[in-house]
Write a structure and sequence with these properties.
Distance between the termini: 40 Å
Structural class: alpha/beta
Shape: globular
CATH superfamily: Aldolase class I
Strand content: 15-25%
Number of helices: 11
Largest sheet: 8 strands, parallel
Order of helices and strands: EEEHEHEEHHEHEHEHEHEHEHH
Helix content: 25-40%
Radius of gyration: 21 Å
CATH topology: TIM Barrel
């Protein structure tokens, strides 16, 4: 099965759909967001993704008054969330910038008003963060949009994934295998879940959302059949913020996309054949013919 996102088809042997997760790595700065969009474009990604919250709804109550040290001084966690959140004008600016760069753009809405906010801006798709997989109200709102939904499965049981798909439906959903550790160690990657999810939810395309250091695990996911790959990107892993350490810098992300395309070409179609390049070695080396 395939799912169409804008002008791209995901699954069914099509090229891997590469998502550059900007998230909150813009640190509330539109110019940083634009630089990260440039990184995604130059690397050859298909899409950039952000996160959209209504801080008063999406911030857990027990976290709201917790002090947070930030580049703008000490503030409550709720005020920090407000400080880094883009509003309508900023999203119009970065959305137009991404579109002009030839990229799809969308976000992970963390609450129903954020779904409405993004729909008003006519995003091409929606992404469900792993933390939101059990939020039935949010999933129902996303189903009502009729848009493609990319569903990350970190921190979730198979039973919870079952319920989420029952709510969303499967005709426009892409599952993303994920482990929600930041950064993730290789022993927690469990990449064999990619074929497991594909077998359990026949017809649902399965991709991979990674939070590891380096490239190897994401590349192995493609070799195992992931139809989409999402990785966080940053201008500098040393920047302030919780996601930078598990992100790829520009050079790393460019190598990731390059190597994904090489792997796609190398996987072939599974039909055994003798290639033209083998004919000369065969004539030179094979002593006994067929």
């Amino acid at each position: 099965m395939t799912v169409s996102i804008g002008d791209r088809v995901v699954g069914g042997g099509r090229p891997t759909y590469v998502i550059a997760e900007i998230g909150l790595n813009h640190n509330g700065d539109v110019e940083i967001a634009k630089k990260l969009i440039d990184v995604a474009r130059e690397a050859g990604a298909d899409a950039v993704k952000f996160q959209k919250r209504t801080p008063e709804i999406a911030t857990p109550e027990h976290m709201r008054d917790v002090p947070r040290e930030t580049p703008w001084g000490t503030m409550t966690y709720l005020d920090y969330r407000r400080r880094v959140e883009f509003g309508r004008d900023e999203y119009i600016e970065i959305g137009d910038y991404a579109t002009m760069a030839g990229l799809h753009w969308f976000a992970s809405p963390w609450d129903v008003p954020s779904v409405e906010f993004l729909e008003d801006l006519n995003v091409t798709a929606h992404k469900v963060a792993s933390a939101s997989l059990t939020d039935t109200e949010l999933l129902l709102a996303l189903r009502e949009t009729g848009k493609p939904v990319i569903l990350s499965t970190g921190m979730s049981t198979v039973e919870q994934i079952d319920r989420a798909l029952d709510t969303l439906g499967t005709d426009r959903t892409i599952l993303m295998h994920a482990t929600s550790t930041y950064p993730m160690e290789p022993g927690e990657a469990n990449l064999k879940m990619i074929p497991t999810l594909r077998d359990r939810y026949a017809g649902v395309p399965v991709g991979y959302s990674g939070h590891e250091r380096g490239l190897q695990i994401s590349l192995a996911a493609v070799a195992l059949g992931a139809v989409a790959v999402e990785r966080h990107i940053t201008l500098d892993r040393a920047m302030w913020g919780s996601d930078h350490a598990a992100s790829l810098e520009p050079g790393g992300f460019e190598r990731l996309v390059r190597d994904i395309r090489v792997i796609e070409e190398a996987l072939g179609d599974g039909v055994k054949r003798v290639y033209p390049g083998e004919l000369a070695p065969m004539a030179k080396l094979r002593r006994v013919g067929a």
